Amino acid sequence: MFNKTLFLFLFISLSLAFSQGKQATPLYAYQSNNEWSVVASDGSIFFKSKNIVEISGYAEGLIRAKIRERGEILWAYFNLNGELQFKIDTDGATEFSFGKAVVYNLVDKESGANKYGIIDKTGKYFKPIIYNDALAFTEGLAYVMNDSIRGYIDTLGNMKIKLADKNVGFSFREGLAAVSNVKMKTSYIDKEGKTILPFKYDESSYFSEGLVKVTTNGRFGFVDKTGEQIIPMMFGEAMPIYEGVTLVAKYDNNYKSVIWAVLTTRLKMLTDWRFQDARAFEQGLAAVKYADKWGFINTKGEFAFQDNYDLAESFAFDGLAFVKNSDLLGFIDKFGKKIITLPKAEKYVDLRWNKELK
Prior knowledge:
Layout: H1 4-10, E1 17-19, E2 22-24, E3 26-32, E4 35-40, E5 45-49, E6 52-59, E7 62-69, E8 72-78, E9 84-88, E10 92-93, E11 100-108, E12 113-120, E13 125-131, E14 133-134, E15 141-145, E16 150-154, E17 159-162, E18 168-173, E19 176-180, E20 186-190, E21 195-201, E22 207-208, E23 211-216, E24 219-224, E25 229-235, E26 237-238, E27 245-251, E28 258-264, E29 277-278, E30 286-290, E31 293-297, E32 311-312, E33 321-325, E34 328-332, E35 338-341, E36 347-350, E37 355-357
Antiparallel strand pairs: 1-2, 3-4, 3-36, 4-5, 6-7, 7-8, 8-9, 10-11, 11-12, 12-13, 14-15, 15-16, 16-17, 18-19, 19-20, 20-21, 22-23, 23-24, 24-25, 26-27, 27-28, 29-30, 30-31, 32-33, 33-34, 34-35, 36-37
């Protein structure tokens, strides 16, 4: 099923910061000897801190972290000078988007149920912890839900789109958002709340270049905003469209082994079924696993350079990708050139994707 948390993180916008008078963006953070360091894309250090227990992510100029205070662990946000902006006593907190962040408390350990609220960049509650579900703002709208309210609010807190009882909303992309109903079927709405596709798909996804991945009976394909089937639902999995191409997968008869290929929206196969694993196209390249090694292909399905790795992640907006092999742990550019080598440390976090590097 569609991972709402990952989607929430994948669409939080990243803002530029300044360090030592230079324009730079946070690249990664690492922990060594109980000290966290935040590193810029040019290799310079934004700040170091022994007061931080864990760094989890970055967005809109603020580092999301955990601190220990009087024996308790609290969520906190730091600026890129390492100055504490505020702390908040909740069980969970997310990165900022449109100046707001979702926070939550666990209310039922057995079921894992949470209650959600929304804070602003001063740490004050924009919306109190009253929701049974809430997502980050994307394209100026955020889904919220409890027993008395269900729909999308704007950045002023006004309800802009009301959803029918028991319908569940997802984040907006290209002006459209998925909505699922009580029968676990998915449709898509626009920012006026108008349904543009019927409730007939089995999983939720998001539009990319005017097309959205859809599935019924375990088979994936793509439709456009009118519902026309552009790529037939005949694949075991698929990545979002990027510059008119996608990566599609098929499984063996036992649904255990998967293999990937590159396909255009005109249904032209650019490669045969050869990749053991794959990431979505980002910044013109996709990380793929071939012959038990990771490399990068372009949108023609050709390898961009010959180096290969034990592990590779997607390129981000800064043109850098994390890779790992026996003699390299760090970031490369789109030509395969080593740009930054990570120091020896206990833990690393990629602050562009807000995920731990392993």
